[in-house]
Specification:
Elements lengths: L11 E4 L8 H9 L2 H8 L2 E3 L16 E4 L15 E4 L3 E6 L16 H9 L5 E2 L8 E7 L5 H9 L4 E8 L10 E9 L8 E3 L12 E13 L2 E8 L6 H8 L16 H5 L7 E9 L6 E5 L12
Parallel strand pairs: 7-13
Antiparallel strand pairs: 1-3, 2-3, 4-5, 5-7, 6-7, 8-12, 8-13, 9-10, 9-11, 11-12, 13-14
Helix pairs in contact: 1-2
Length: 307
């Protein structure tokens, strides 16, 4: 039985691995460090039946337990997300660069999901879709559990129009104001964080699947050696916009993965983060039929006038 959310954070279900630990506390200390002792005292470990675990229980490899993982990224002050729109069913927030959408890995408290649950005082809130950690802009939140399916299906069925702004070097073959459509086959190499383009007729690594991506791109203007592009994805593959722009020879400014992975030092010394903004979001509300149109209030750091 999954424990109720705690301060906006879900417990994770963990299958205990094979090992020589004698007690649950020994495994937890090896896994989470000295923080494990405090975690047991707070009741952060529970059995599938709901019983709180003390750590003195014999270790049983293969058993499943629930764990509230230690939160290392807990902000010193509550995070406040800019709200673009809100009604009884949904909210639209304007995510900053560098904030994950959902809890994952080392990002827990400083994520849109957890921050929104705390800000709105509502543990039912989930994100209807995701944005990369590096990408800023609009995220649709669903406030009621019973409304999740209706809004999530809008994205699954590609019934949401999304417009992004990106800053990159000007491309000589892109006439200003002309929209071009780019259909590319994307895949993610095993064990790699980046996405690559597969050219038909070339060998594909065994066990790798390819996804067909469709992106409309309009070159808007250029100033100071920086070009402004409007991107309309018709599919939602991982890193789609970043990979497509890189393939076209104009990787997005500040991208830590394309055309090559930056070192941690290079990422820290960047003048700005990935210059990609989820600027507009439009859809027909599944409950009212009303056309909903939202626009981010953010701009791109490397362009003084985002247009």
């Amino acid at each position: 039985m999954q424990p109720p959310l705690r301060n906006g954070i879900n417990a994770a279900r963990v299958k205990l691995p094979a090992g020589s630990w004698q007690t649950l506390a020994q495994w937890a200390t090896d896994s989470f460090g000295q923080e494990a002792r405090s975690a047991f005292a707070r009741g952060d470990f529970t059995a599938d039946c709901g019983a709180v675990l003390s750590g003195r229980e014999p270790y049983r490899a293969g058993a499943r337990i629930w764990v509230f993982r230690p939160v290392k990224d807990e902000p010193p002050e509550p995070l406040t997300l800019p709200v673009v729109f809100e009604n009884e069913r949904i909210a639209v927030i304007d995510k900053p660069h560098g904030m994950a959408t959902i809890p994952r890995g080392s990002h827990v408290a400083q994520t849109v999901t957890v921050a929104a649950r705390r800000q709105f005082g509502n543990d039912d809130i989930v994100c209807a879709h995701r944005l990369d950690l590096e990408t800023a802009g609009l995220v649709l939140l669903i406030k009621k559990y019973e409304c999740r399916r209706a809004y999530q299906q809008l994205f699954d069925r590609r019934q949401v129009s999304k417009t992004y702004l990106a800053a990159a070097a000007p491309h000589g073959d892109f006439p200003p104001g002309v929209r071009g459509r780019y259909i590319l086959n994307l895949y993610r190499p095993s064990g790699q964080p980046n996405v690559e383009v597969w050219e038909e007729g070339t060998p594909l690594p065994a066990g790798i699947s390819v996804s067909r991506s469709v992106t409309d791109i309009t070159f808007k203007t250029a100033a100071g050696g920086i070009g402004l592009y409007e991107l309309h994805p018709h599919t939602g593959y991982l890193h789609q916009l970043r990979a497509v722009m890189n393939h076209l020879g104009v990787p997005i400014c500040g991208d830590p993965l394309y055309p090559r992975a930056m070192t941690l030092g290079e990422q820290a010394s960047r003048p700005y983060r990935l210059q990609l903004l989820a600027q507009e979001l439009s859809f027909s509300d599944p409950y009212t039929g009303r056309e909903m149109n939202f626009r981010s209030r953010r701009g791109l750091a490397c362009i003084s006038a985002p247009g």
